[in-house]
Amino acid sequence: MQKLPSGILNKPFKTGNKKIASELFEMYFSRTCVFANSIVNDHQQAYDIVQEAFINIWKKNIECKSVITFKVYLYNTVRNACLNYLQREFKQTTEVKENLNLEEAIDHMIIATEIESEILKHINLLPETRRNVILLKLKGLTMKEIAKELNLAVNTVKTHRKLAHKQLKDGLKDLYLFIL
Amino acid sequence: MTRIKSTVLIAESLKKYLYGNCTEEETAMIEKWLENPSNKSFFKKFKNDSAHRMMIHQDLDLSIARNALRNEFEKDRKFRIYRSSWLVAASVIILMGLGTIFFLNKETPISQEKYIAAFNLYVPGENKAVLSTSDGNKIVLEKDAPEKMIAEKDGTRINIGGDVLSYENQAELSGVMLYNTMEVPRNGEHSLVLSDGTKIWLNSESKLRYPVSFIGNTREVYLEGEAYFEVAHNAQKKFIVHTEKSIVEVKGTSFNMQAYKGETNITTLVEGSVDIRHKYDERSTVSLKPGDQAKVISVNHKIRVNKVETLYYTSWKDGYFAYKETSLENILKQLSRWYDFNYKYDTDDVMNEVFTARLKRYNSVGEIFYILEQTGKVRFRSEGNKVVVMAKE
After folding, report:
1. Distance (Å) from the C-alpha of residue B385 to the closest C-alpha of chain A?
2. Disruptive mutation site among B40, B48, B54 for chain A (greatest number of A CBs within 10 Å)
3. Do residues B291 and B316 share a domain?
4. ipTM of the complex, rounded to two decimals
5. What is the DSSP string of chain A?
6. Number of residue pairs across A and B with CB atoms under 8 Å?
7. Of the residues B245, B276, B310, which one is the last residue of a structural domain?
8. Could you tell me where in chain A the CATH 1.10.10 domains are found?
9. Smallest Cβ distance to B12: which of A68, A172, A179?
10. In CATH, what number does A126-180 get?
11. Does any CB of chain B come closer than 8 Å to the CB of residue A71?
């Protein structure tokens, strides 16, 4: 689950600070794994690549004017590491880099990851039962299965779902369309 | 502007756009971006995999990566300390008496850093245990838990929290003896002070059952696993330790006992005197003098005594692993309990290799493996949830 930001990333920062590095890790590790996984299609590899990226970024003590600078650096590092891995592992030569479709797919993955993280942030702000109903729904469970899982009546689950959706709609505005 | 940078900017603007708080320039940028047909079709397909990706995101276990990062923080801190004093650094690792150590071994390109990273799954043990009170309640004792006091049914007060659990002495007691049990898991250690003032250090994967207050003519406790005892002197009340295989009678003394299930039962006397015997054979009784080590021989119910340097058997309670010509198997038995890992041998004969070393108990296990590898006798590899031990080619 994502932690709430403490505000220390709202002004310029350096990634070599342990507090900053920890907060960056908590906020951005998961989404970066999803991004890496969509390129290498291997959970463990993705995890390792991202773990190493975070350690390196901490070691390099990069000066960031804002979170955007950091994100650009992070996505770049992970993208390159993923492509290197594919090259090494599958002997895909430089064509990969020049493959426009791949570049475009990477762009789209960054955008998808960012939007999904935003949506998850709102889901995680929901009260517990509403949150669980939404998460189980996303997992593809039916109302009946969710009711069984949470030990609630189906109608109660439906009420929670309705309330959750109302709250998400208020919070997410048009972003809400993505999880309909 | 790099491609990634413009993509990140688009992502940020897109979020704002969808929230409805975009500037005009940002809106223009988005609209231009959406003119591209492939971007448009990406948006149409977006929802298809979105739920799946969000679930990966939500359910990801960060703990391994978090530990790896903290490990780096820690290494950095240590590095700063050690740099300031080579003497400290030198005292961390003192490998003694082995002609076979090649610190400049050209055939081992694996750096210490890689080694530490490979095994960062396994962290050193720390203060933790579960206390079962006489009414069956279980209290989890954790590192840095706040201090508090609880009372047993007979009025004995127990101080919980901090590094040591302690029982307060009651002046006059009679009636039923109440028992508590302290159980230390793998990856843990804990110490306690009994109501008579006896101090006990319990090592990983160990269990001690004892009365909250001692009534009657003896003080009797039951041990499974490893413990170091500093028994408070009381000539009128003998202190007796029961284990699976042996019984040790004490008057007032310091000694270490290893009594893990299925392993050799070893008692090492540091100070004072104790009598030890096989559980089922009173005639096997032997009196130990300081520096004596008794091993219980199961087959013939006998006790075998050797002179040893006790330091090698008690150093664990002072934060060290000290080995003198100790077999790899015995070293790994100890390390695996402390760092909580499983291991297997690639080739069996390597388990009988012996090592002499003094290692810090709170260092990462990767550092320890690295040091052992430097002897040129053995190599370690992480494989799934196991450590694989190989002979050095």
Report:
1. 14
2. B54
3. no
4. 0.91
5. -PPPP-STTSS-EETTSHHHHHHHHHHHHHHHHHHHHHHH--HHHHHHHHHHHHHHHHHHT-EESSHHHHHHHHHHHHHHHHHHHHHHHH---THHHH-HHHHHHHHHHHHHHHHHHHHHHHHHTS-HHHHHHHHHHHTT--HHHHHHHHT--HHHHHHHHHHHHHHHHHHHGGGGGGG-
6. 130
7. B310
8. 126-180
9. A68
10. 1.10.10
11. yes
Query: Which has more confidence, B142 or A25?
Result: A25
Q: Are B57 and A172 in contact (CB < 8 Å)?
A: no
Q: Is residue B66 in a domain?
A: no
Is residue A76 less than 8 Å (CB to CB) from chain B? yes
Give the tens place of pLDDT for each residue, A68-116.
999 999 999 999 999 888 888 776 554 544 555 788 889 999 999 999 9
**Residue B297 is part of which domain span?**
126-310
Inspect the interface and report whether the beta carbons of B62 and A30 lie closer than 8 Å.
Answer: yes
Residues of A in contact with B5 (CB under 8 A): 72
Which residues on chain B are in Cβ contact (under 8 Å) with A1? 58
Answer yes or no: do B157 and B33 share one domain: no
> What's chain B's average pLDDT?
83
Shared domain check, B161 and B296: yes
Indicate if the pLDDT at residue B156 is higher than 50: yes
We report the CATH number of the domain holding residue B148 as 2.60.120.1440
Number of separate domains in chain B: 3
Name the token pair of B393. Answer: 């080619």
pLDDT over 90 at B209, yes or no:
yes
Note whether residue B83 is domain-resident.
Answer: no
